[in-house]
Amino acid sequence: EYLRLKSFVDEKVEEQANQVANSLSDNDYRLRDGKKFPRVSKILNPDPLNIPNIEKYAERGTVIHHIVNEYLKTGEWDTPAADISPLKWTDIKYKEFFDKYGDRFGKDFQLNVECFNDNHLFSGEIDFVGDYEGKMTIGDFKTGTWKLEQIIAYFKCAPKTVKQLAIFDLKNCKVETWAVDEPPVQEAWENFLKLRGAFKQRFSI
Question: Taking the model in full, what pTM does it have?
């Protein structure tokens, strides 16, 4: 009797766990014209990240993105005030970054541009679209790890006038750029499409 009940309970628990693992929250996609467009970030990382203090990393990244946006728009720096311990604000070299690279940014740009790809049904929010080193650029400000698949996915949503992709690495105070037709970029796009296919198979959208 015990084994029979255990088998029944185990089956129900596994069924519920699979349901949770293969379901999405409203924050994992955008709605447009009645269609669901999964976020690029969710496609790249469909499972929760098991990182200590992950909520503090997320808070720090969000605040620094806001500070950088305000600086680009006004030329003035805000001072972060939230308690993110055990992390430190000084680990992200955002002021040093703009001391080093700030004169490479042109005056013509947009920030936090929502984008959609209708062919493959995914969405995102591009940090920077505009002039960098005299080229129309899609750029992403990063305070941690990054994947080229993310920025090429954004490019596939963007106007064809974009000629360059960029990662603005605020943690390591450096910039990496690619022409949109470089082989590594094309390889990253092919890999993203595989991830998109796996995501659709798992979540049915």
Answer: 0.86
